[in-house]
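Example 3.2
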Amino acid sequence: MTQNQYGLSRTIDALTKRAVRQRCGFGCVNCGCAVYQYEHLDPTFADAKSHDSDCIVLLCGGCHDRVTRKLLSKETIKLKSKNPKCLEQGFSFGPFDLGVIEPEIIFGTLKCKAVLSLIRILGDDIFSIKPPESNGSPFLISAKLSDRDGNEILRIEDNEWITNSDNWDVEVVGTNITIRRELGDILLSLRSEPPSRLVIEKLEMSYRGTKISANENKSIKISKQTGQQLDAGGIRIEGCQVGIDIVETGLTIGTGGGRVMIESMTISQTRPNPITSRLSKLYPQLSLPPFKLNHLRKIINQWGK
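Structure, written as tokens:
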């Protein structure tokens, strides 16, 4: 049925969907799973005259099936919708489907296969892969992805992804995950291609003074606090322990064996702001709310002039 008795279409507009996601914390109100569907709770879709975001909840397939089979009551879901699981625990979660075949990870124009750590910053693995723990089990991906101010927006732990409920918007459509800072401002767009490929379509992040900008089919750009910049139109790394290793004194591409194929790449050096560099060394884990951080940057820039 595409329309109910009042002529209401099943298609929910984007604005209403976003309001529902924000209210529910970007996951199932009952269990917190971030693989969800939109469910008209009260009234049900059959009796609804409009798509009211306050009357719609997010339910995962499992919880939705339990409600349909009357193993989980709608009264329970109504209570859960007042205190969604994701807001209670501070995050939502979901699984990645990876198989027993060595996965290929595409990070903008950086393509890696059989690489244990794709990107390492000051000793921290930003994106890493572990081999199967036993025969027939999948490869395991882990990652720490942050926004432009260094605040974590998505974490992956052994193929389970976890997103912070403090994000402005997290949208899951099929195998795509999109995280927005505000309307039209995409911080992360990620696509899973089961069973052996994961694609970072877009990422704008900062981690301990290093900025990474990645867009599918565009150059990946890495900028260090020291002023060193890498701009790569295409890099393929296979069989290495570390793809890109970023340390205080510089960066290395492809370490620990394997091979590196470079289509185009430039490395340049700009003069760093001495105040910013000093703050980075004194407070490497500095994390402030965006407003305060932007205000601090303005002060630093004035000092540096």
